[in-house]
Amino acid sequence: MPIKCGNGKNGCNWRGIIENWEDHASRCGYASVSCPNKCNTEAILRNTLNGHLNECPMREFICVWCMKIGTFTHITSEHEQVCLLKRVGCPQPGCRKVMERKLINDHIASNCKYSVVPCKYDSIGCCVKKRRIEISDHEAKDGEHLSLALATVQQLQQDVSALKNDTFTFKLTKYYALKQRSHSWIEDHTYRCGYNVYISVYPNGYNEATNHYLSVYIDVEEPPRSSLLQWPFKGTVTVEILNQMSNHSHYKRSVESFVPRSSHPEIAAEFVHLICHSSVEAPSRGGCQYLLGDTLYFRVTVLSASTKPWLECSSTLDTTNTETN
Ligand SMILES: [Zn+2]
Ligand SMILES: [Zn+2]
Ligand SMILES: [Zn+2]
Ligand SMILES: [Zn+2]
Ligand SMILES: [Zn+2]
Questions:
Q1: How far is the centre of ligand 3, averaged over its atoms, from the C-alpha of 2 (Å)?
Q2: Are 102 and 84 in contact (CB under 8 A)?
Q3: In total, how many domains does the chain have?
Q4: For 37-78, how does the pLDDT look when each residue is reduced to its tens digit (9 = 90+)?
Q5: Which of 98, 267, 272, 325 is the most buried (most CB within 10 A)?
Q6: Would you say residue 229 lies in a domain?
């Protein structure tokens, strides 16, 4: 008695005897089979399986850019979005360059003519940003940038002159011998604050201070013409006699005005009648003694107030002398 194949609904026309059924069933082209790649596609018939395997979304697939192996679905979607060797276009509007994805970031940062970059003078205050293709035209505008550069230089000069507070210390020996003979003693000239400053000490005093006071002669000389320093000197020179016992109670006088001599306009000098002899020579009192072993220590602080005013910035310097002990 002949029987029909149970896959008749799929199109199988097989009819035969029951003894041959098992053999047919194992080869029937209309039998439903599942994909060996486990792709979950339904209703695959045995005679369409080969066709399916050529299109199966889970079939093995090799990336044409980097040769990575994966499933067709993964390689052509997720992987292709990130494949470093895939050639892609620069995303900057206007740029048509195509290159391997791994080169794009470098290209945008350093080469792409359409990247927006800051003007190379941004460190001196130019805030302009333009596409790389346009920035060199802007950077070539000297006028705008020179005024920024000038402002920067002026600020630096101001900062430098604010730092021109300089101190030097020297000692005078043989105080009594100098005083007795009314001789002066000249400290080697020392370049300070850009100015030459000479200090002469008259232990027995000068002019009306003779026999009463120790006098100091402060001599400031004009700096070279090329210097930005102002002449006449504007600033303060402070002379101290140092307490040799400990670091306090130093005796201090400041001179804030220096007028060039009419006969030698390159020199501005002032006398200071600094301290009376009895105070200099007093023995140690309250931890304070200036003269020790016939020696005095002097400290000179030069505070320059300004550079040439027409090159100065609008903000003014604080020229107040700092208080020291
Ligand atoms: Zn069949
Ligand atoms: Zn499949
Ligand atoms: Zn790839
Ligand atoms: Zn580009
Ligand atoms: Zn600029």
A1: 57
A2: yes
A3: 3
A4: 999 888 899 999 999 999 999 999 999 999 999 999 999 999
A5: 272
A6: yes
